[in-house]
Amino acid sequence: MGALENAASPRAPRADVVRNRAALVDAAAKAFAEHGADASVEDVARRANVGIGTLYRHFPTRDALVLAAHRREVDVLCASADELLATTTADEALATWMQQFVDYVATKRGMASALETMIDAGSEPLVDARSDMVSAVGRLLAAAAKTGRVRGHVAPENLLRAMSGHCLATDGVGWKDQARLLVGLLRDGLRYGATH
User: Fold this and answer.
1) Domain with 99 in it: what CATH number?
2) Structural domain for 187, as ranges
3) How many C-beta atoms lie closer than 10 Å to residue 117's C-beta?
4) Residue 154 falls inside a structural domain
5) pTM, whole model, 2 decimals?
6) 77, 39 in Cβ contact below 8 A?
7) Quick count: other Cβ atoms within 10 Å of Cβ 98?
8) Residue 168 to residue 116: CA distance in whole angstroms
């Protein structure tokens, strides 16, 4: 019976395999942010201190690498919502998260063309990522609205759409500073008509 149980239960991946995958995803996110989705996979492997074969074992296609890097950025952003709510006021948590969204877009911009192609193809992981972000910003909005510091009844989807628009409205040198300013103005707009 013991042999059957061992055969049925999957083994946890080795620590070096987990470490290599995480290093590759981190390196890919940085490379895509700096050089766009056309960043060389050789550069990604070099940054992660692994061979190109290791990269292809984990990510057989460029799209798989782009998706993994994007998913990691979404996971970090979504996790920060709950961390911020646990460590600061709801109003400040929302404000900080909105600025973190600008950093997320900075990485996503580098992957934009590849992601757009996948979105057009109806990629489910991207639909799931969007749903997770709507949920995260929804928790932040609800908590901040409860304090009366931002107006209630703001749809999380609309706030995400507005932030995305502000982040993508400018291009070139200094776009990130401009996006931070615009997202800050959007935050001020959320306070208009609040009860507090």
Assistant:
1) 1.10.357.10
2) 62-191
3) 13
4) yes
5) 0.80
6) no
7) 21
8) 14
Give the burial class of 169: count Cβ atoms within 10 A of its Cβ; 0-12 exposed, 13-18 middle, 19 or more buried: exposed
pLDDT tens-digit series, residues 25-82: 999 988 988 887 788 999 999 999 999 999 999 999 888 998 899 899 999 999 999 9
Cα dist. 106→67, 128, 177 in Å? 16, 20, 11
Quote the tokens at residue 120.
Answer: 């057009």
| 55 touches 129 (CB < 8 A) | no
Give the contacts of 35 (CB within 8 A, at least 6 positions apart): 43, 110
The answer to whether residue 56 sits within a structural domain is: no
Count of the separate structural domains present in the chain: 1
Q: Is residue 102 part of a domain?
A: yes
Token readout for 122 is: 């109806």
